[in-house]
Amino acid sequence: MSRSFPRRISPTITLFLTILLTGATLPTFAHIMAENSIVESVSDAQKLVDLGRSFYEAQRYAEAAATLQQAIADFKANRDGLKEAIAQSNLSLVYQQLGQWDLAENAIAQSLNLLQTGVNPSPAQSQILAQALDVRGRLYLLRGKAENALNTWRQASNIYARLGDETGVIRNRINQAQALQALGLYHQAQNILTQANQSLQKQPDSPLKAKGLRSLGNVFRVIGALKQSQEILEESLAVAKRSQSPQDISAALLSLGNTARAKADIPTALRLYQQASEAAISASDRIQAQLNQLSLLVEMHRNNVGAGLTNNLT
After folding, report:
1. 105 in a domain, yes or no?
2. Which of 110, 187, 212, 217 has the fewest Cβ atoms within 10 Å of its own Cβ atom?
């Protein structure tokens, strides 16, 4: 007997959405709202999904996985396929953070199997399908399958466009740009991010806008357009500050440090790496900034030693 797919979904059920950006660590989260404004009672399974999200945000991934597995079992028992699909997508992201690739693939495959069996899906179901495809694309990219990631995100983009979800389209373009960068197609990545940037400029300040600008600035650095990179990254930092997003502030400072390094402005790069470390709210962000700072210091030392050896030979 197939599981039922209700036409509305509680706003308390969330899908862990992903934005794949240089300098970003954890994906962001978004609520899947009911198609009408009816708010359902919160079940124990739904509470488990929320608890799993809290564990995920706290980087307590093993606990998040255990909690989501329990929620999935409850949804299966109630034959609630839509909410099970959401929880499976969430679980895939948790496994991705743990580096458990086979388990992550199994979870997202189950989610997509549940979502792609429906006939005439509702807008809410289509939205969840697009977000699940985003999660699969992330997994592909993490496993070095950039072309598969790109094709998967293009599928999701078509759904977002059909739904008129401009935010989803922007987020998806940013994702596609990451895959294009991984494939070495930097100018294509620049083109798609420029389109995203044009859409972002029309939107109010938000973490999404900060991330989009940061990704565009990173691409400009890779292709050697360092002036444009710095200008756009400074705008990203300003948006992150106005949005009061500490993670994006730290990430923008880190990217600015990388651009300063590419310009051979060593003092500025070291200062920005230090600021990124101080602004970081997660251990992984702090460690990344410190590693960049350390690698630059090591590079400086090697250059100084090399210069000394050259002087001794002349």
Report:
1. yes
2. 187
Q: Which residue has the tokens 């404004």?
A: 37
Domain housing 66: 1-174
> Residue 125: how many CB atoms within 10 A of its CB?
23
pLDDT tens profile 128-163: 999 999 999 999 999 999 999 999 999 999 999 999
Q: How far apart are the first and last CA of the chain?
A: 84
Return the CATH number at 123: 1.25.40.10
List, in order, residues 6 or more apart from 138 with CB less than 8 Å away: 18, 20, 27, 93, 96, 149, 175
267 Cβ contact partners less than 8 Å away, ≥ 6 residues apart: none
Q: How far apart are CA 314 and CA 312, in angstroms?
A: 6
Question: pTM, whole model, 2 decimals?
Answer: 0.73
> Positive or negative, the Cα torsion across 245, 250, 256, 262?
negative
134 assigned to some structural domain = yes
